[in-house]
Amino acid sequence: MPLITKKPNLFAALIAGLLLITAFAFEAAGYPPCDLCWKQRYPYMVIVILGLFAAAAGKEKNHTILLLIMLLFALDAAIAGYHVGVEQQWWQGPTSCTGGGSLLGSASDALETIMNRPLVLCDEVAWSLFGISMAGYNFIAATVMTAFTARILKK
Length: 155
Fold this sequence. Notes:
mainly alpha; two-stranded antiparallel sheet
């Protein structure tokens, strides 16, 4: 496993890239992302850039870059965990992408609420496997990669 131990920044970039490719493949297969799904992609995009930069600069084991990558994986895990909670109705999500919202009041207010809702809601599970949503799998992957990078940093 030389790539994992000798080039952890590059390995992290490859994993983040694979996760991004998977997300875009689901989108191409007819599962458009909600707003929270998009927010989960941004840390991975930065991880890919940092990992490739480290590889190009010959800093495959640079601890500062790996620390930044670890923090980005942790951020992604936090966003994904929050998204899972919104999907499971454990807490209210952002009003900009959830099915909530008051339809009380005038007809024009109700119509405006309906028209301003996004097409893809953050509080609805679009796809799941074994009862785990895409956000759930992303939470697992980001948490594992956070632990991996923390372990490499500790060595």
